[in-house]
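in:
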């Protein structure tokens, strides 16, 4: 009986180690792609809409570097804690997105789309524990709603429903996908 009780703990620990190994082994390509796409988008905005880029340049810089630093940490010394490192990187990247969304020059509908895509991408690309996806999605939505309402960034009545609900729907779908 006593040995049967220890088996689930050992199996759970081994499964968590396996998740960390999956993240450490598979994070390079997503990190490069996210950094590249963020860099291309921010560079394009710098050339075509410098009035929008300028107030958010440091947030874009942070967004571009965060996936690369997270990858380096997950593949290096913090490999055994890759899921938590990944969550930290995700939260930093999200905060940079929210700083950009707070800028008066940012189109909030575009920010809603970017946040919805980010929510879905973490559910698809990160083989982390479902609870970490729940934390990521909850923190993202909470921060986004702080930007939207107390931050005074809600659009007109025609857009408010989309701006409010689209990221929330993406968060719920990402949580449901992480569960199954």
């Amino acid at each position: 009986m006593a040995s049967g009780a220890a088996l689930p703990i050992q199996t759970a620990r081994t499964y968590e180690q396996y998740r960390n190994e999956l993240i450490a082994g598979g994070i390079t390509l997503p990190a490069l792609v996210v950094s590249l796409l963020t860099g291309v988008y921010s560079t394009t905005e710098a050339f075509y809409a410098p009035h929008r880029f300028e107030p958010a340049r440091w947030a874009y810089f942070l967004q571009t570097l965060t996936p690369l630093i997270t990858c380096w940490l997950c593949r290096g010394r913090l490999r055994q804690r890759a899921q938590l490192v990944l969550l930290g990187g995700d939260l930093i990247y999200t905060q940079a997105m929210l700083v950009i969304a707070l800028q008066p020059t940012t189109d909030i509908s575009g920010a809603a789309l970017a946040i919805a895509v980010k929510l879905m991408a973490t559910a698809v690309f990160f083989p982390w524990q479902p609870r970490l996806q729940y934390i990521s999605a909850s923190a993202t939505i909470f921060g986004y709603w702080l930007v939207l309402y107390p931050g005074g960034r809600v659009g007109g009545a025609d857009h408010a429903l989309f701006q409010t609900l689209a990221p929330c729907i993406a968060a719920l779908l990402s949580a449901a996908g992480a569960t199954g």
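note: The two ends are 31 Å apart (CA to CA).
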